[in-house]
């Protein structure tokens, strides 16, 4: 990964590199037919900007799991499924920034568990 404090576009390759360096990730098949890629525990900070009437609301959340296709996170606010939001994933190696689509949102004891699928250009 690049040097500390670097900002990189969110790409499947950048997430895969982070997972390889941090966890020894391999792109193996998973038994769960709903998933294209395995998920790895991910306690990193997730930043999301949610559209509101007068602009954007800035939210910080805690990552739960990460794959090259998306991230599961705990947020204080519920997000609407199918909503597209700007996102940043903050790690010591780099900050990855881009867009994600909310795939699901469910109440959680710490707020809301939100599943975000990365949108790659």
What is the percent of helical residues?
under 10%
**Count of DSSP strands:** 8
Uncertain stretches of 5 or more adjacent residues: none
Structural classification:
mainly beta
Give the overall shape, derived from the CA principal axes: globular
- How far is the first residue's CA from the last residue's CA? 21 Å
Following the backbone from N to C, one meets helices and strands in this order, namely EHEEEEEEE
Secondary structure tally, helices: 1
Largest sheet: 6 strands, antiparallel, barrel
Give the radius of gyration: 14 Å
The average pLDDT is 87
* Beta-strand percent range: over 45%
Spatial order of the strands in the main sheet?
Answer: 3-4-5-8-7-6
List keywords for this structure.
121 residues; mainly beta; six-stranded antiparallel beta barrel
How do the strands and helices of this protein lay out in sequence?
Blueprint: E1 6-9, H1 12-23, E2 40-41, E3 45-52, E4 55-67, E5 70-75, E6 84-90, E7 94-108, E8 111-119
Parallel strand pairs: 1-7
Antiparallel strand pairs: 2-4, 3-4, 3-6, 4-5, 5-8, 6-7, 7-8
Report on this structure:
- Helix content is 10%, strand content 53%.
- It has a 6-stranded antiparallel β-barrel.
- The protein is globular, with a radius of gyration of 14 Å.
- The protein starts with 5 loop residues before the first strand and ends with a strand.
- With 121 residues, the protein is mainly beta.
- It has 1 helix and 8 strands, in the order E-H-E-E-E-E-E-E-E.
């Amino acid at each position: 990964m690049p040097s500390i404090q670097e900002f990189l576009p969110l790409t499947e390759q950048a997430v895969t590199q982070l997972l390889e360096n941090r966890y020894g990730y391999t792109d193996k098949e998973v038994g769960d037919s709903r998933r294209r890629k395995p998920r790895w525990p991910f306690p990193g900070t997730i930043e999301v900007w949610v559209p509101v009437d007068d602009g954007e609301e800035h939210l910080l959340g805690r990552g739960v799991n990460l794959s090259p296709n998306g991230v599961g996170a705990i947020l204080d606010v519920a997000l609407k499924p199918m909503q597209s939001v700007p996102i940043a994933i903050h790690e010591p190696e780099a900050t990855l920034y881009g867009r994600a689509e909310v795939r699901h949102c469910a109440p959680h004891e710490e707020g809301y568990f939100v599943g975000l699928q990365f949108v790659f250009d």
